[in-house]
Automatic annotation (TrEMBL), chains A, B:
Gene: proS
SUPFAM superfamilies assigned: Class II aaRS ABD-related, Class II aaRS and biotin synthetases, YbaK/ProRS associated domain
Gene Ontology MF term list: aminoacyl-tRNA deacylase activity; ATP binding; proline-tRNA ligase activity
InterPro entries: aa-tRNA-synt_IIb, aa-tRNA-synth_II, aa-tRNA-synth_II/BPL/LPL, Anticodon-bd, Anticodon-bd_dom_sf, Pro-tRNA-ligase_IIa, Pro-tRNA-synth_IIa_bac-type, Pro-tRNA-Synthase_IIa_type1
The protein's name: Proline--tRNA ligase
This protein's UniProt keywords: Aminoacyl-tRNA synthetase, ATP-binding, Cytoplasm, Ligase, Nucleotide-binding, Protein biosynthesis
Reaction catalyzed: tRNA(Pro) + L-proline + ATP = L-prolyl-tRNA(Pro) + AMP + diphosphate
Record note on domains: Consists of three domains: the N-terminal catalytic domain, the editing domain and the C-terminal anticodon-binding domain.
Top-rank EC class of the record's enzyme: ligase
Pfam families with a match to the protein in the record: HGTP_anticodon, tRNA-synt_2b, tRNA_edit
GO CC, alphabetical: cytosol
Length: 567, 567
């Protein structure tokens, strides 16, 4: 039976390759995984895994499972359909906003489709563990998760239903949490190495998860939604969202008093800088946003862009929106295009650390056509809080060594968090300590995007002909092509059987009436690491063995080929 | 690594056994699976699988997967979150009624949580297969399914979120469908045999699925929701819902004319039969139901109960409800307690085949306190349709040989359907035939309740001490108990390591500070097939090997025990 499953005849495989990219596909992995017949779109951000894709997914799951078991992780399976109450207890029922799929059952009870399971795991451990002797515990599951993404895009890279491995550690002491975190970090390194993914471990901000320490595993890829900064001189690497500029106050003693200057028709930084003939960096840009409906101003140097991700992370889980024209109605204190912090008594003012105390700026004078110069932070206006919210740019100084940073796009394939006691506090998760007194439990949470890893692999392992799977995740070890008529098909099936008997997973293209050219093209598109062709010299029992990645090819007898490949 | 995963120390396992049955548990499997720490309730009908339960679930999945692969099934994974449109195309979006979990996404689009996937598989095959050469195809998935049961009960036996293996066959001809059906039937037999389930294959009605031929795999168990009839004489076995009585018209020539008789205060069959001193079987009971809101009458002999399941199946997918007092308001033709078919011109009248043409009855005269006798079917009233809707009773004649039937309760663990072209018609699923003309595809659909099988196993394999898992599905092969102090623990861990190295899956109870009595009780409750105790004679290197099911025990040296168990 095992043998039967090892050899898959393509004449009986449900698959269809496409020569053209799907019309809606923007990124490489989306194009190739659809064209090679690995996945099929069922709805926006909702995908079906076809036989070849399911094999890759299963291989990744197996590797993740083995490495999680190896660090003592215990596999469980929690529901995806979850009651509202635990998520209300932590505030996430509201905080998740529109990203949460909510639904009602037939009795009107509120449910959600789990985006992540901190609440349920915390309740589970509260029920199961009562003493310090029951800890530490690492629990994991490989499960379907749901997030109602605003813009489901990029194929399976960012779906609304997706496969994740999520795990949770429970410890009585901070040192224990640090150890559980280190175990996961090492397991993730082994997992991504076995998967064949190129990745970097980057400092990250925790976002809506809460907690203190957090690192991301980022796989560099053009299709990535994350941007990370890499220092060419030291080992610093971080998600650009996590990079913060140091606050360095300067002495403003020599700066003249604030002076208003007429600046007609200069509602933008560009028009202002041109009008005054100063660099944009001399001006102060005041961005207005609404945080849970209330207007907040954010000041950054005029030459820098605001990273809305950083702003959202700062206010998370509150909802952050840009202001619209309507928000200015009835607000005489807010003069669109001429806002300056020195006139914003009613508005919370955040500033980038680059707007340090003592720095002087040209900024709006809160009156149409009027700006002010020599506006000094801490003298002419107060900053309610400093938050680094600017977009990191290529060449910005490394926070560690000062060298100009290099920027790259990447896919987040894993994320590890030291959550601390946030969820334990919400559910009063205590165990009896060694001294007989209750101890509040400290938690970590750890995720791997299992279905996303398929996309990350496709992004990193492809060429102009198609996919090139690393062996351990490939849908098969060997792709045997019958390139010809009956003689070739007979030999191909024979080679496939021998390879299957040797324990290799074999795909054999025995489709009748399909030309060798089409079969070769399909084999390159599907991307099994080794391609064996029974072709011109089939009569002599000679096949061609080709490495999909390098293109190296060699003619071998069947016996040689089987011996070589099963070695 | 494989080795590490094979030996699970209970000191590090998250589990908690309970001595008492959970308060809400009615059935054996619910009680035992919760008490033994296999599952935990998260919400009504929504369960979490704890480490031991997850192992059993994974074993069942493996067996199902192997046998599905063996019949050429190709594994895929379709989403659980599904768009409304395909289910609207087949009418099931409405037909499923309150059983379907429906939800909206952030843009207001309608979605459902898949209860079964005929629509999506049909669309998939329509997309992937274009020629008769691409068929037959058998596709399967092991996936989470959702049904908003009105009364989620009996633990994991009838959950609202559950694991299923569903598969679908696609053929061009009826013979092909018959073959795909036969392949599934044989695979299911192998699966349930390997699982160690006692089961019967029974004729079934197709319910909301549509289609012609259908059989159920029923596992006899007191907790079962299905009742099946077994003939003691021939090989007939059927779900009682599927048993139909033959229509046998009789000659009514000698029956006198209809005669109305005063019967004050006889609104029930019991009061009527007592008043007239006739057996209940001489009377005709007319049950009123609402079918999609419209009143329908159903006539059955007064001594028989109506099987609402059969009524629902007849009208499926329409919603069937019992009438309430309100439904009689304004309906002068419907006199509660005195309804007779001879006065029901405005109401559809269904009758059981036992109310055959020519049979004479005592029934209501459609006037308070008045009945009629000599009311002859086909003479005094017309039957719109004959449908067998009575509850089958122990001793009813076998439809095959006439012997009195035996009735038993059972759990539906599998169901196979020859759907035919219902779904192919809905989606115009054609492939190009051998003659170059389009051929409409014919389908089968086949399900195994994977999580329900865990409950069925627990029902069938338990005694007063707890669970007794068949080896292939058990959470471990051997449960080693350290019954004593350091010496016993050391020996237990040594035995566990040796058994693990021999390829056995081992649970070792090395919990410090837990008494041997508690460990024994837990071992019996958890139900691993073999229990090895390192106890009194640990110092001599002697352990006790006990069969969980039979209770047979034997003292062996460690070497003997390891040799015996790994044989």
């Amino acid at each position: 039976m095992a043998h039967a499953a090892q050899v898959q005849r393509m004449s009986r495989l449900m698959f269809k390759t496409l020569r053209d990219d799907p019309a809606d596909a923007e990124v490489l992995s989306h194009k190739l995984l659809v064209r090679a017949g690995f996945v099929r779109r069922t709805a926006a951000g909702v995908w079906s895994w076809l036989p070849l894709g399911k094999k890759v997914l299963a291989n990744i799951e197996r590797i993740v499972r083995e490495e999680m078991d190896a660090i003592g992780g215990q596999e469980v399976l929690l529901p995806a359909l979850l009651p509202k109450e635990p998520y209300e207890a932590t505030g996430r029922w509201e905080e998740y906003g529109a990203e949460l799929f909510r639904l009602k059952d037939r009795r009107g009870g509120d449910y959600l489709l789990g985006p992540t399971h901190e609440e349920i795991f915390t309740q589970l451990v509260k029920d199961q563990c009562t003493s310090y002797k029951d800890l530490p515990v690492i629990l994991y599951q490989i499960q379907t998760k749901y997030r109602d993404e605003a813009r489901p895009r990029a194929g399976i890279l960012r779906g609304r239903e997706f496969q994740m491995k999520d795990s949770y550690s429970f410890d009585t002491a901070d040192e224990g949490l640090a150890e559980s975190y280190a175990l996961h970090r090492a397991a993730y390194q082994r997992i991504f190495e076995r998967l064949g993914l190129d990745y970097r471990i980057c400092a990250a901000i925790a976002g809506a998860m809460g907690g203190s320490k957090s690192e991301e595993f980022l796989a560099p890829a053009a299709a990535g939604e994350d941007v990370f900064a890499d220092c060419p001189s030291c080992d610093f690497a971080a998600n650009t969202e996590a990079i913060t500029y140091e606050l360095k106050p300067v002495d403003a003693a020599g700066v003249p008093a604030l002076e208003e200057i007429p600046t007609p028709d200069t509602p933008t930084i560009e028009t202002l800088a041109a009008h005054l003939d100063v660099p944009a960096s001399a001006t102060l840009k005041n961005l207005l946003v609404k945080v849970n409906g209330e207007i907040v101003a954010v000041g950054v140097p005029g030459d820098r862009e605001v990273d809305m991700g950083k702003v959202e992370a700062h206010f998370a889980p509150a909802v952050v929106e840009l202001v619209t024209a309507e928000d200015f109605v009835g607000r005489d204190d807010l003069v669109r295009g001429y806002v300056g912090p020195q006139g914003l008594e009613k508005v919370t003012y955040l500033a980038d650390p680059r707007v340090a105390p003592g720095t002087a700026w040209i900024t709006g004078a809160n009156e149409e056509g009027l700006h002010a110069k020599n506006v000094v932070a801490g003298r002419d206006f107060e900053v309610d809080a400093y938050v680094d919210v600017v977009v990191v740019q290529e060449g910005d100084p490394c926070p560690n060594c000062g060298t100009g940073l290099k920027l790259d796009r990447a896919i987040e394939i894993g994320h590890i968090f030291q959550l601390g006691r946030k969820y334990a506090d919400a559910f009063q998760l205590d165990v009896l300590g060694q001294n007989g007194k209750p101890v509040r439990v400290t938690m970590g949470s750890y995720g791997i995007g299992v279905s996303r890893a398929v996309a990350a692999l496709a992004e990193q392992h492809a060429d102009d002909k198609g996919l090139c799977w690393p062996r351990e995740v490939a849908p098969a070890d060997v792709h045997v092509v019958a390139a010809g008529k009956a003689k070739q098909t007979e030999l191909a099936l024979d080679v496939a059987d021998q390879l299957g008997a040797a324990g290799l997973r074999v795909l054999v293209d025995d489709r009748p009436g399909v030309s060798p050219g089409v079969k070769f093209t399909d084999a390159e598109l599907i991307g099994v690491p080794t391609i064996v062709v029974a072709g011109r010299r089939a009569g002599e029992g000679v096949v061609e063995v080709k490495d999909r990645r390098t293109g190296e090819r060699e003619e071998l007898t069947v016996a040689e080929a089987v011996a070589r490949l099963s070695a």
